[in-house]
């Protein structure tokens, strides 16, 4: 017996794609800040999350104050989401960029769609279809080609760096699945963001202080250009990328949203073409095509609709 299921929401796909384009600037910002300013990875992650939290509280407080309303029953989930899930992902991603560089770090982080697809079935009850498994394989292969990780020279990194990179992929998968579950809990998915970033910043700040002198949090000193780039990273790629990704999960399953997010390295490569004049080679264009094919594959597949949320 066969069942007819509605197609993946085109609105959700569009929102996820726009969010991924914005998100694609994150690695460039982080790489530049770590390479040109006296910032430790944990310090950068702390300020990024703190600036994002403050900006969200200010913006939502003026624009949609109802979005910030939570109950005591929400606090345990928000503390878990911010202090453990979001803080862990942001810290691991920042360290991965530092230790592995952009190419290898991106491939390792975007092992996440595989983890999302595999974990979404037991945790969220999402379908594990052959089409999605093929899409995961296409996506991972495309990430390898776009990031040039097929070159042996790209993998001349220490084992700790590889472990951190893989852990960042698992952490992003857990972030996606937790966010999808939280989306069912809150009428507006944006509610999770300011509290999540605030609690993540508290965790990262404590870790930064315990691993270095407290003055290390202010290592930028009077380098106001660095502070400005940090603030831009927070209010641009961070809020824009995370926000639209969260909204997309109102319309998409976690596994589909994760596969669309795997377009990020392809978008980053295209941005480098126009911004930095770095031309893509044939393999990178091929990798971009494979990732696009994976997104089209899941978009055209049948998928159960997420439950309706009362607003």
Quick recap:
By secondary structure, the chain is mostly helical. It is built from 12 helices and no strands.
Report on the architecture of this protein.
- Helix content is 72%, strand content 0%.
- With 311 residues, it is mainly α.
- The chain has one domain (37-299).
- The chain is globular, with a radius of gyration of 19 Å.
- It starts with 9 loop residues before the first helix and ends in a 12-residue tail after the last helix.
Furnish the topology, listing elements before pairings.
Layout lengths: L9 H14 L2 H11 L4 H23 L11 H35 L2 H13 L5 H17 L12 H27 L6 H20 L12 H25 L5 H8 L2 H13 L5 H18 L12
Helix pairs in contact: 1-9, 2-4, 2-9, 3-4, 3-8, 3-9, 4-6, 4-7, 4-8, 5-7, 5-10, 6-12, 7-10, 11-12
What integer is the average pLDDT?
A: 79
- Mind telling me the C-alpha Rg? 19 Å
Q: Roughly what percent helix?
A: over 70%
Question: Total domains, how many?
Answer: 1
Number of strands: 0
Gap between N and C termini, in Å? 35 Å
The description of the largest β-sheet is:
none
Structural class: mainly alpha
Q: Can you tell me the overall shape?
A: globular
Topology as H/E string? HHHHHHHHHHHH
Low-confidence stretches: 1-6, 302-311
β-strand percent reads: under 5%
Determine the number of helices (DSSP H or I, runs of at least 4 residues): 12
Features:
311 residues, mainly alpha, disordered N terminus
């Amino acid at each position: 017996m066969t069942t007819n299921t509605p197609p993946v929401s085109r609105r959700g796909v569009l929102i996820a794609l726009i969010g991924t384009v914005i998100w694609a600037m994150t690695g460039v910002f982080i790489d530049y800040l770590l390479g040109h300013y006296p910032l430790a990875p944990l310090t950068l992650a702390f300020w990024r999350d703190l600036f994002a939290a403050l900006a969200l509280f200010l913006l939502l407080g003026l624009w949609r104050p109802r979005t910030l309303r939570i109950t005591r029953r929400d606090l345990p989930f928000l503390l878990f989401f911010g202090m453990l899930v979001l803080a862990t992902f942001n810290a691991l991603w920042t360290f991965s960029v530092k230790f592995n560089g952009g190419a290898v770090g991106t491939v390792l982080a975007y092992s996440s769609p595989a983890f999302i697809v595999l974990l979404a079935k037991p945790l969220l009850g999402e379908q594990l279809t052959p089409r999605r498994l093929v899409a995961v394989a296409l996506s991972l292969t495309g990430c390898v080609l776009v990031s040039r990780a097929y070159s042996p020279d790209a993998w001349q990194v220490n084992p700790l760096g590889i472990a951190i990179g893989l852990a960042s992929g698992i952490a992003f998968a857990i972030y996606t699945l937790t966010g999808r579950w939280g989306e069912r809990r809150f009428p507006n998915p944006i509610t999770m963001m300011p509290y999540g970033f605030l609690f993540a910043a508290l965790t990262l700040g404590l870790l930064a202080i315990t691993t270095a002198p407290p003055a290390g949090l202010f290592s930028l000193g009077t380098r106001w250009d660095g502070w400005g780039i940090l603030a831009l990273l927070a209010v641009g790629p961070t809020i824009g990328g995370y926000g639209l990704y969260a909204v997309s999960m109102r319309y998409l399953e976690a596994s589909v949203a994760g596969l669309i997010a795997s377009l990020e390295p392809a978008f980053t490569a295209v941005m480098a073409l126009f911004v930095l004049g770095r031309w893509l080679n044939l393999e990178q264009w091929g990798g971009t095509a494979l990732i696009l094919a994976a997104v089209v594959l899941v978009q055209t597949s049948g998928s159960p609709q997420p439950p309706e949320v009362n607003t």
